[in-house]
Design brief:
3 strands; 59% helix; mainly alpha; 3-stranded antiparallel beta sheet; Arc Repressor Mutant, subunit A
Length: 133
């Protein structure tokens, strides 16, 4: 299995993850088809499929098969592991990533942090509304 940070270092894979995250808020969401991803991102189907395989192998997405179609969804569990790893590098006083990180890691950390926060909000928000918290 590839290192998860190598997986999310690729901008196309980050775009796919962001797309899946954005779509997950839709009522009745049950995954996004490969053809929808191709249309939304404007890249070829083979390229999308290659990146989805890498994301699937890393456990960042799940796939649901329906006939010849595949529907992908974001899996938040690996995002929690990334968040746990990144937390020691975040300064609690000003929420800035420690400057000692390489620039590529800063961009990856920013993406992962925003994604993890959005996923956490999306998952916990309905529960908070129900319980009044």
């Amino acid at each position: 299995m590839a290192d998860i940070f190598d997986v999310i270092a690729d901008s196309t894979r980050r775009e796919i993850l962001r797309l899946l995250l954005d779509r997950s808020d839709a009522p009745g969401y049950d995954g996004t088809s490969v053809s929808q991803i191709v249309a939304d991102l404007g890249i070829s189907q083979p390229t999308v499929s290659k990146h989805l395989k890498v994301l699937r192998d890393a456990g960042l997405v799940t796939v649901r098969e329906e006939g010849q179609h595949r529907f992908y969804s974001l899996d938040i569990v690996p995002m929690e592991a990334i968040e746990d790893w990144l937390m020691p590098f975040i300064d609690a006083h000003d929420d800035q990533v420690i400057a000692a990180l390489p620039e590529g890691a800063v961009h990856a950390a920013d993406f992962v942090g925003r994604t993890a926060a959005a996923i956490t909000h999306a998952v916990t928000s309905p529960f908070r509304k129900r319980t009044g918290r």
